[in-house]
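User: Hi! Is it possible to get a structure for several chains at once, not just one? Here's what I have:
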Amino acid sequence: MFETRRVRTRVLLQVLLTVLVIPFVFPLVAMVQGSLKGAGWANYGTVLSLPLLPGFFRNSAIIAAAVIVIVLVCTMTAAFGFSKLHIRGKEFFFWLLLACLTLPGVVLLSPLFATVTRVGGYNTLWAVILPVAALQIPFTTLLARNFVDGIPNELLEAARVDGANTVRTFWYVLAPLTRPIMAAILVLVFINSWNEFLLALLFLQTPDHQTITLVPQYFVGQYNNDQTKVLAAAVLTGLPVVIAYIALQRYFERGLAAGALK
Amino acid sequence: MTTLTHRPGATTARPSRRRLQRPAGLPWILPALVVSVGLLYYCIFYTAYLSTLDWDGVSPLKDSVGAANYVKMVGDPVFRGALWHTLVFFVVSLVVQVVLGIVFACLLHSKLYLKTFYKVLIFIPVVLATATVAPVFRQIYAPDGTLNGLLGAVGLGSLQHTWLSDPTIALLIVISVQVWQSTGVVFVLYFAAIGQIPPEMIEAARLDGAGNLRIIASIVWPSVRGTTIAITILTAIGSLKTFDIPFLVTSGGPSYGTEFLGTQIYRVSISFAQVGYGAALSMVLLVLALAAAVVINVGGRRGSATDV
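Assistant: Yes, the chains can be modeled jointly so their relative placement is included. Here is the combined structure:
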């Protein structure tokens, strides 16, 4: 993009880039630095030796896994249906789904609370899993439909001519072809559900049901606001998503970009 | 499967016939509709009903009060404050993110060193939960925190401040956390959009003597218009949805100085147990979010039509 043939410009631009990135890195450095103050690495020891911690991790993992399965199944079947199959009033249903893109999660607060308490779902992981999945599906379906639209109809028709029914066509033709967008959706949904805060705060009341995002708050109470422990806990809760992102960075950016370019 | 693709005969059907032949797809979209549309629309209608009640959320006593909750909103200074903060938040965060996003995208499309490394650094804040990073920001802006420490160390002790107890500065801090967290997304979207600009176009402009800034203004900016509109919609809806950051970093304070619709709904519905009023606020928030999406979308399209 920018002309970098002259060494001076190149150095200048590299410096500019570095200076602009500093504010993005500073809080991360402050986080790690703060977590090592006082007792140093022992802060991490204290956090890790907390008997409840594996439970927090397990709950977050269960929620993320369940949300991923629900979202992937609903999204891929819906993308196939919307893109390649005959549905009367198809666009009406699609818009019904898309309108939910604008829905702020906090709007669900009261009705969910009333409903969840009535059906006895309070303090169960389902109270978080289902709403989180419901809130993700509109966006992931938009992404996946755009992707499936790009697959030539001829491929699917050829499968049909050869005698494959719709289910087999989906499983043997469409599913393998949509792996890239599935990977993108997987990372996106993992990060969003792992990071869910509001619904977890609202519905998960006892520590053995709580999730990783509630840990820093838990530590504020437990350790009388000992910042070093709180920050160590924050670093530990952030690590899984950072690792997931760096490992799957390619898919993640491709998925986001695919959704926006259409 | 490879043999299938070698059958040209299968593709010769007329488009109209092909459509008629397509298998029925309703069962395929049902799971998504049930989970998403079912649950979310159920909640919306339920909220609409709740918004006509005077109810604490627990007692069996529910008084129907008609539109009283909506009338109450008109005279509620906290609600007006929340709307104002949302607007400021939207405008400032949008401008800063768009500028930073485009600059980063252009820089990282240039021949520079360690581009992936920089990309990852810009994007890490996006994937971290607000709940994870909120303690850091509280620590940075605390009276004895990192920022005051830095100011003291470089001899600018006179600028030290109790940052989070000044409503205006607290609002700016909330905005800065938002910018920190979502510039990565804006950058990735612009990065992809700029990748679609034909290199010949930029090459030609350069031959005509255009400098870097001129190329951004005259070629890049008009080419990424669609992305800018998408980002504007995302930011508008995101601003209306704002909850985690003010809730966790400033708790909506000081003196409601960083109250947003989301935090107000939480406070009213949960802390004050005024479920009816909270639901009415939710309905207004929902209508505003839908309206924002429609207005920006239509406005953006009209703008591009006059450009042609």
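Chain B touches chain A through 108 residues (CB under 8 Å). Strands of chain B lie at 53-54, 63-64.

User: Great, thank you!
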